[in-house]
Amino acid sequence: MFERFRRQLNGLIKHLSEKELNEGDLDSRLHELELVLVQNDVAVETAERIARRLRDTLIGLRISRWKGAEETIHGGLKKALLEVFAGVEPFHLERILEGKPENEPLVVVFVGINGVGKSTTIAKIAHRFKRDGHKVVLACSDTYRAGAIEQLEIHSSRLGLKMIKQRYGADPAAVAYDAVDHAKARGVEVVLIDTAGRQHIDVNLMNELKKVIRVAEPDVVVLVVDSLTGNDGIRQAEEFLRYTGFDAVVMTKMDADARGGIAISVADRTSKPIIFVGTGQDYDDLEPFDYEAYVNTLLGGLS
Ligand SMILES: Nc1nc2c(ncn2[C@@H]2O[C@H](COP(=O)(O)OP(=O)(O)O)[C@@H](O)[C@H]2O)c(=O)[nH]1
Ligand SMILES: [Mg+2]
Question: Can you say whether residue 20 is alpha, beta or left, with left for phi > 0 and alpha for psi between -120 and 50 degrees?
Fold first, then answer.
């Protein structure tokens, strides 16, 4: 994963440590770092901040013999990257479920634009909860897009789970309400609610989603972001934050992403935790996001 980003970062660290740099040289190399970050989907302001942090470390250190500085630079960059995630609270769906009173299901609403991988992610999370012995119900609150109900139905039947639905054109909030009601009546512990996306974020969509959230009273709203969409993914995150709010993020299609910097931007720009990353199309292809492991992967091969 993130081959391109890793290669460029590692190349840059080598370049930076080749010879002793005066302040001017250092600034131009740090500018290269900013470019590498931005080319790999880190937002501009975030990239500037990371470069500034690394500069502070390197200026303060006064490495007397620049030869052998590679480790120091590597460590400084690692610290600068980890700091991005420092402001984000850790978050575990399982713990929230454990904290729920008896007969109160964990309710999760998933939002995000079309094609990002919402339904697939819901199926993967359902699979995970089922594997751990929990009762799960899916709800199709996408009553808008042709085929949406059938698609979620395919996942629910493959996974052997019940799905709550209504006809196309029905009120999405009513479907969400039915699902929560069903769960309470039947002792189902987890309700995962799929919602409609659009190609572009619009007022109708946001109003519809707000109503689903008001009615379902979810414990957690999860934004699903496709890592391949780069800067547009960051823009989506900022818009959803403004209009519906969300508590956590799932980044999908990380398996196909040679860049991967979007995780840094999302954490920096929204301060929301990334709970899972999607790493393929199978139900098992979902991994908890570990930001230390992520940073180690980006800087891999040097420590
Ligand atoms: N490679 C890869 N493909 C994914 C991942 N998550 C979803 N997809 C694919 O992305 C496409 C859109 O997914 P879907 O769940 O229908 O998106 P939705 O419109 O947001 O519900 C499907 O072809 C999925 O198989 C992932 O983590 N990795
Ligand atoms: Mg869908």
Answer: beta
pTM: 0.94
Range 93-298 classified under CATH 3.40.50.300: yes
Is-contact 192 110, C-beta < 8 A?
A: yes
Kindly report the protein residue whose alpha carbon is nearest to atom 5 of ligand 1. 253
Question: Looking at domain 3-86, which of 3.30.750.24, 1.20.120.140, 1.10.10.10, 3.90.79.10 is its CATH number?
Answer: 1.20.120.140
CA–centroid distance, 246 to ligand 2, in Å, is: 18
Q: Residues lining ligand 1, judged by CB closer than 6 Å?
A: 112, 114-120, 197, 252-253, 255-256, 278-281, 285
d(CA 203, CA 196): 13
Amino acid in position 260:
G
Q: What is the pLDDT of residues 259-303, one digit of tens each?
A: 889 999 999 999 999 999 999 999 999 999 999 999 999 998 544
Ligand 1 atom 9 nearest Cα: 117
Say what the alpha-carbon torsion angle 279, 107, 168, 280 is, to the nearest 10 degrees. Answer: 0
